[in-house]
Specification:
3 helices; alpha+beta; monooxygenase activity; Alpha-Beta Plaits; Jasmonate_Hydroxylase-like
């Protein structure tokens, strides 16, 4: 993960917003999370990701994809599906997932 936000790119593209609250049981989570970050980069059309976690445990990850085909490839990846199942069984108290088409995007950087 980067310490700077994902830069705006030419719309349209998709943003997948994954908001989570984790359980106390996190055995294997860091390794699986690192693997998913590595694996998603191999998806043609994957653009990047932002992540934030507050001290109370709320986490938000936003992944960006060029098109619906890239989303489908990621959603149906067998290793990703196995991680999703384990997440529901062990790591997440609850989560929400939103998929949005980005129609406008810009970046600001202080000089």
């Amino acid at each position: 993960m980067s310490d700077v936000p994902f830069e705006a790119c030419e719309p349209p593209y998709y943003a997948v917003v994954f908001t989570t609250v984790r359980t106390q049981e996190q055995n294997g989570y860091p390794e699986t999370n690192a693997r998913m970050e590595e694996l998603v980069q191999d998806v043609p059309g994957y653009l990047g990701m932002d992540h934030a976690q507050n001290p109370g445990g709320l986490g938000i990850t936003v992944a960006y994809f060029r098109d619906a085909d890239a989303l489908t490839q990621w959603r149906t990846n067998a290793e990703h599906r196995a991680a999703q199942n384990r997440g529901r069984a062990e790591w997440y108290q609850n989560y929400t997932l939103h998929v949005a088409k980005v129609e406008r995007s810009h970046t600001f950087k202080r000089s």
